[in-house]
Amino acid sequence: MAAEEHGDGPMVVLLHGQPGVGQDWGRVVDALDGGLRLLVPDRPGYGRTGGPAGGCAANADAVIELLDRFGAERVVVVGHSWGGAVALDLAQRHADRVTAIVLVASVGGAGSIGLVDRLVDAPVVGPVLAAGTLAALRAGRIRRVVAAVAAPRDRSAVDSLADGSLGPWRSVVAEQRALLRELPAISARLDRIDVPAVVLIGDADRVVSPASQEALAGRLRHAEVIHAHGYGHLLPREAPEVVAQAIRSVVRTADEDGVDGDGRGTD
């Protein structure tokens, strides 16, 4: 995966949602102001990484390869929306590499898969829906509607979804199919996650329901729930300071558990 690195301190990996690119975290990176070592990739199928999209496990394995490349042993993982499933899978299958997780408007809880998710998985209908939606968004025809659903307090937050080519529609379809296939097993293993977690919920989220995110937190052994009142689904764009504060909080907890500033475990 292509990735940018920012700042110095304990390492945090920021995983964007779907569709998306690492730049979606730009406002959060600015809010953290260099106080952490941030690794911000474009996930497979998007941005500079490109190529075919993968499922949750494939993304998690790609993150491990990325950590090895940057010499980081243990990190805090932050996942937004679809990227939250990757964070959960990492904390389950690669527990020795993860010190804490932050789940931002994340899938994973009961009820987080909705009708639209299942439609995108459907033959013929799914690709047409994904490609048509991104095309309409780029043309500005439905941007106001999407903004009202995903970012009610800062409608400019949807602008990033319209950037770039129409290529990502194939990645969206591939990821949705993988999510429906892999998420049930990830959700069934939630109680195995034994690291600090923050579940950050936009109370006005109409993409992944707040109730499903509450259910997700209820299944995690060490979860803190933070509500972003009045905010929607695109929290990294719409409420970067809230996201940054949640990251700082869990990093402090991970530090207390014995991880040094280079992402390496301490004795």
Features:
single chain; 267 residues; alpha/beta; Rossmann fold; 7-stranded mixed beta sheet; 10 helices; 7 strands; 43% helix; globular; disordered C terminus
CATH architecture of one domain: 3-Layer(aba) Sandwich
Task: Provide the spatial order of strands within the biggest beta sheet.
Answer: 1-3-2-4-5-6-7
Taken as a percent bin, the fraction of beta residues is 5-15%
- Tell the overall outline: globular
Strand tally, please? 7
Helix content: 40-55%
The radius of gyration computed from the alpha-carbon positions, rounded to a whole number of angstroms, is: 17 Å
**Mean pLDDT across all residues, rounded?**
86
* Number of helical stretches of at least 4 residues: 10
N-to-C terminal Cα separation, in Å? 31 Å
Largest sheet: 7 strands, mixed
Give me the CATH fold name of one domain.
Rossmann fold
Indicate the CATH class of one domain: Alpha Beta
**What structural class do helix, strand and pairing data support?**
alpha/beta
Give unreliable regions as ranges. 263-267
Q: What would you give as the CATH superfamily of one domain?
A: Alpha/Beta hydrolase fold, catalytic domain
One letter per element, helices H and strands E, the order comes to EEHEHEHEHHHHEHEHH
